Amino acid sequence: MSPRSIGVVMNGVTGRMGYRQHLVRSVLAINEQGGVALSDGSRVLLRPVLVGRNPDKLAKLAADHGIADWTTDLDAALAVEENQIYFDAQVTQARVKSVLKAIEAGKHVYTEKPTAETVEEAVALAQAAEARGIKNGVVQDKLFLPGLLKLKRLIDGGFFGRILSVRGEFGYWVFEGDWQSAQRPSWNYRTEDGGGIVLDMFPHWAYVLENLFGRVRSVYAQTATHIPERVDERGETYAATADDAAYGVFELEGGIIAQINSSWCVRVNRDELVEFQVDGTHGSAVAGLRNCRFQHRAGTPKPVWNPDLPVTARFRDDWQEVPDNDEFDNGFKIQWEMFVRHVVEDAPFPYDFASGARGVRLAELGLRSSAEGRRLEVGA
Ligand SMILES: NC(=O)c1ccc[n+]([C@@H]2O[C@H](COP(=O)([O-])OP(=O)(O)OC[C@H]3O[C@@H](n4cnc5c(N)ncnc54)[C@H](O)[C@@H]3O)[C@@H](O)[C@H]2O)c1
How far apart are CA 95 and CA 319, in angstroms? Predict the structure, then answer.
């Protein structure tokens, strides 16, 4: 029996995330491996329908990858019954309108984060999806990074004892665009275009924290626009109106304190672009994208503060690597497979629009906390 296929309307595939991670590394990679494996042993292939604004770009993309269907008419793509899933990787500002259309058309919807720019809209999307009875999901890729999977393994194995705190450091230097081109699209640096590091990264921190440690109960954030002027893709100078760094303190369920710095204005002096240090009564760990080091309390050295003597201890030598013990697939692809199983055979998928809305709420509260200079409760 040949595998069946379902149509997936993919909007925003000419963009960075839509093309590389979702089309090439997920949907096409899934088809290359023979489809998504279901619990009964059968497989389901994905039939992408590319949607966007620029017909030339879409036609080229489709030809490059042997994809039969592309269109600039979203309504027409949604009107086709066999197209069961709508996926959105457009710029954040364009998301709500398209996702609502897909919900109204009765499609199951999977989308990049953030689900919306405001909590009001994010909650409205979750309610609309529930009212229409469609399956819904939001990308939460960081949970599937090998480093965080290893960290989860330590947590599940009881390694930490009581977890006290989490310190996250995320960021790298994004060039201003004048003497070296910027490595991120310019809209990220304009509030009026849906940019800003809080709206970009706090939704990630919300699901990372809630899935590994507990839901966020309160937030204090201080944001900054360290670089007020940048140069865009066309070589034109523009006012960078959005926050390009955010220094946040989050209080979690159970009393764990998480501190996360997010910045596009920091030079990397770490092993990875994001790292989380977790300290517990019985041990500590530092997890990055791929690796995770740990130190058990039995292997913890006893430093004594003495500025008069040179430091001879090599503290980082006292840590051990968590072994792979597994093969780690692309995180975006793993989540696509989970969502397809959720649609086709009702497999569990906890990363829904409601959790997406909690991410948007954390971003909104983070921005408000900074503007008002005070800690804010997140509420249930
Ligand atoms: N999961 C992650 O780790 C991650 C990382 C980066 C970005 N993102 C999210 O992915 C989305 C896309 O980000 P990106 O970095 O790929 O951006 P991008 O600028 O590279 O791509 C955006 C896409 O949207 C389309 N687009 C641009 N303006 C539009 C408009 N006005 N109306 C409709 N479509 C428009 C573009 O043609 C392109 O296909 C954003 O919502 C962003 O928050 C997620």
Answer: 44
Q: How far apart are the C-alpha atoms of 213 and 133, rounded to whole Å? A: 30
Q: Which of 88, 90, 97, 139 maximizes ligand 1 atoms within 8 Å of its Cβ, making it the mutation to test the pocket?
A: 90
Burial of 265 (0-12, 13-18, 19+ CB in 10 A): middle
CA of 159 to the centre of ligand 1 (A): 39
* Pocket of ligand 1 contains residue 169 by CB under 6 Å: no
Which residue spans within the chain are E strands per DSSP? 4-11, 36-37, 43-51, 69-71, 83-88, 108-111, 136-138, 163-171, 216-224, 229-231, 237-239, 245-252, 257-263, 274-280, 283-287, 292-296, 320-321, 376-377
Q: Calculate how far, in angstroms, residue 235's C-alpha sits from the geometric centre of ligand 1.
A: 20
Q: Which ligand 1 atom sits closest to the C-alpha of 57?
A: 37
CB neighbour list of residue 179: distance below 8 Å, 6 or more residues apart: none
Separation in Å, CA 353 to CA 86, 97, 361? 14, 15, 12
Q: Which atom of ligand 1 is nearest to the CA of 139?
A: 1
Q: What is the pLDDT of residues 10-26, one digit of tens each?
A: 999 999 999 999 999 99
Assess whether the C-beta atom of 15 lies below 6 angstroms from ligand 1: yes
Digit-coded pLDDT (tens) for 48-70:
999 999 999 999 999 999 999 99
